[in-house]
Structures are given as C-alpha cells and as structure tokens.
Specification:
With 415 residues, the chain is mainly β. 1% of the residues lie in helices and 47% in strands. The strands form 10 sheets. It has a 5-stranded antiparallel sheet with strand order 16-19-24-21-22, with no helix packed on it. It has a 4-stranded antiparallel sheet with strand order 3-8-5-6, with no helix packed on it. A 4-stranded antiparallel sheet has the order 15-25-20-23, with no helix packed on it. A hairpin with a 6-residue loop joins strand 21 and strand 22. It is elongated, with a radius of gyration of 27 Å. The relative contact order is 0.10.
C-alpha cells in the first residue's frame, strides 16, 4: 500500500479496518488466483457520496477489471457490502484496489464466483459517452433491446455492435469490424454512471511499435521497410513496449518485423509487465543492415482473454517496425532443437567446440564475430559433433544453429 492507517472496527468480527483513506490510496494483494472469479465484494463504511474503488491488475495503473461504487452507509462504522462484476480472467495475479476521492473506511475485500445482478432497472439517458478505453462486460439490463440501445448511441457512431447483459446473456451478435461495444451500468446510492467503451477485439491487427501504449524508452526514425512510416531505433538492453487490451483468444504466435546488423539478440513476449509471465521469445535474425527488414516469428503458450502484452528487448542493437499476432501454430520460443536437448561446450573454449544434438536432428552451424561477419560454417548431424575453432582470435563470438524448426543463437568466448 502507499498509505495504511488502521483503527478498531465495529463491524461483525471486529478486528481492524483501514481508515483516513484519501484519493489515490491503494492496497495490493499478491498472487490472487482469479480462475472462476466473476466479481469482487468490498466491506465499506462512509458518510460521503460519490466515492469508488477501482480493481486493477499488477499496479495502481494496471488493467482495470471493474469499479466498486461505494454506497452511502450513514456512518464511518456503519458497514455495507458493495460488489462489482469483472470480466473473465484466468491465472494468478497481483490485485490492486485503488481508492477514488476517499472519505470512507474499508474492512475487507473478497473475490466471488457470483455474477452480480443487473444494477439498474432501466436506462434513462438519451445518449451514451463514447471513449477509447478498455473495460469489462457488465451492464445492459436484461430487458434492454438492441433497437433501443442503438437508438441511444451518439449520432456520429455507425455500424452494428455486440452487446451483453449483466448476467452474460447475449442480446445482439452483430459485429462492427474490429470492435466490440461494452456497456457498463452501475448504480450506487445517490450516483449513477452510464458509459460505453469501445475495444479493438480483432486479435490479428498489426501493432505498429510507434503506437504502443507505453514504453520504457521510444525513439523513432523514418522507416525504409514496405509501407514506410516510422520504426523504433536506438534500442538498448531491457527496453520494452507495452500494448494494452490485446485479445489473445485464437492467437498462437507473434510476428515481429526486424532489422539487425548484428546477431545474438532477442525479444521476450510477456503478460502485463516487463517481468510478467513469459509467453515466448523471438530470436532476432541477422538481416545485415539497420534498414534491411525480415519477419521473425515465435509460437506462444495458449492464452485467453484481453491482456496487456509487453515486448522486452534483450541485448539491443536492432530496429523494430511492428509486431503482429497470428493464428499460425509454430514451434515454441526456443526453436524446437533447444527443447530437444541442444548442448554446446566447453565455454569458454580453446581449440574444439563440442555440439550435441538429439539423434533425429540436424542443423546448419554458423559462427559470427563481434561485427556480424561469418567466420565458420558447418553442417551438424544428430549426436555429438566437434567444431575446430583453433584458428579464431581471442574474443566473443555468436554461434548460430538453424534448421526447419527455427534458429538459435548462443554466445561463446574464445580463449
């Protein structure tokens, strides 16, 4: 938490509650298992109106799962339970509760498998507000019709939409290409909120790196690849690019458009943050120049839901034009031959480098010096092979092994 002050609690069960809460206070709970969680309850007490608690993933600015509207309970020790539905999500995450406005007390939070009932009896506003932010599927009362809903959209919005009721029943399945409209309707004492949020739900839309939602550092230059535009340049080790709200259902791999004058670099694909769950690693190919472009691909672990995806650069020294999710099923990030038992030793090496592959594998070996020039090439068969490196100068080299399953780079030191 960024601030925690407690006092004796007069709620059932006694104990302590958080008090003196102000706008922006947050409370983090690590490693919360969200499988089968459809909502969160909060035990709150307040004399104030118009307050709320955001439920977020990972940090106080992470993906928003839902917003709990704090009811006016009539006293700082008069307790009520408020709830909010969240979108379906699986896995173990850090969950952060962010207080908005403040002026209330909190006893506890509790995940629940319950799907909250519709919060309002009818929608009374004549139009909705359109925003380009992400959200969760809650919302339309069960008796709302598609015709009424579409009639209340702002006049500038055209097309058809996919809409759900609060209990998950679909009331329309017409899709506006690439988009889904999600309606959120929440009702707390003395406060009502109606919003429409548009999500890009086409999972196979190209992600231009210059359009990322966040980055540890982003420097761009004019791109000479097909289509022109901009590319990310001057990339260094550990630099990352985050894209919010990527729908991963049906995504089996990621492509990356890359230019690299040197070898031995890679890009990790992670969930939520630069240190989040690793989905796969794209091995950056040696393209020969800063504006000579190739597409590299990697299969990822099957993942569902709408998630923030982060691309983390390892070692740096290459340019990126775009990333693109794909339905193609590829080998996982370690290029197949690593999964099957590649061994390379000794390292550091004097005169002979030994490479072991499974008996049913074969690969082409290249050794590159520190400026990317090829200094050795050899066909490697399954089993144990010996490569003579006695003629190489002392220094660092990159060993590249490639076959139909992919390419693997390893760094070696020549004594």
């Amino acid at each position: 938490t960024n601030s925690l002050r407690t006092e004796n609690c007069q709620d059932v069960g006694g104990g302590l509650n958080a008090g003196w809460i102000k706008n922006g206070h947050w409370f983090m709970f690590k490693d919360v298992k969200l499988d089968d969680v459809n909502s969160f309850d909060a035990r709150v007490a307040t004399l104030s109106e118009g307050t709320s608690i955001e439920v977020r993933l990972g940090s106080n600015t992470g993906t928003l799962l839902g917003t709990i509207l704090v009811p006016l309970t009539g006293g700082n020790q008069t307790w009520e339970t408020a709830s909010v539905g969240i979108g379906p999500i699986t896995g173990i995450y850090d969950v952060v509760f962010v207080c908005k406005e403040g002026g209330f007390n909190i006893n506890w939070f509790q995940p629940s498998a319950e799907v909250p009932p519709s919060a309002i009896a009818e929608i009374t506003s004549n139009a909705y507000t359109i925003s380009q932010s992400s959200g969760v599927i809650k919302g339309l009362p069960d008796n709302e019709t598609l015709a009424n809903f579409k009639g209340k959209l702002a006049a500038s919005e055209n097309g058809t939409f996919e809409v759900y009721t609060s209990n998950g029943r679909t009331v329309a399945t017409d899709l506006l290409p690439g988009y889904k409209v999600i309606v959120t309707a929440e009702d707390g004492k003395m406060k009502k909120t109606y919003t429409i949020q548009i999500l890009n739900i086409d999972p196979f839309v190209r992600l231009e790196v210059e359009d990322c939602d966040a980055s540890s550092k982003l420097k761009t230059e004019n791109c000479q690849d097909v289509g022109g535009g901009l590319n990310a340049a001057w990339i260094t080790d550990g630099q990352w690019f985050l894209f919010k709200d990527i729908k991963l259902d049906g995504v089996n791999s990621f492509d990356a458009r890359i230019a690299a004058p040197t070898a031995g670099t890679s890009i990790e694909i992670r969930l939520g943050s630069a240190s989040g769950t690793l989905l796969g690693t794209i091995e950056v190919p040696l393209t020969g120049a800063w504006q000579t472009w190739k597409t590299a691909s990697v299969g990822i672990k099957p993942t569902t839901g709408i998630r923030d995806v982060v691309f983390v650069c390892k070692a740096g020294g290459f340019n990126i034009n775009w990333f693109e999710p794909s339905a193609d099923k590829l080998e996982t990030s370690i290029a197949g031959i690593l999964d099957l038992g590649l061994r390379l030793f000794p390292n550091p090496v004097n005169d002979e480098l030994i490479i072991q592959l499974p008996s049913n594998e074969e690969a082409q070996l290249y050794i590159l010096n520190s400026i990317g020039a090829q200094v050795c090439m050899k066909s490697i068969q399954g089993g144990e092979s010996t490569v003579d490196v006695s003629a190489l100068n002392t220094g660092i080299y990159i060993v590249c092994l490639t076959n139909k399953k992919g390419t693997v780079y390893r760094k070696i030191v020549k004594k």
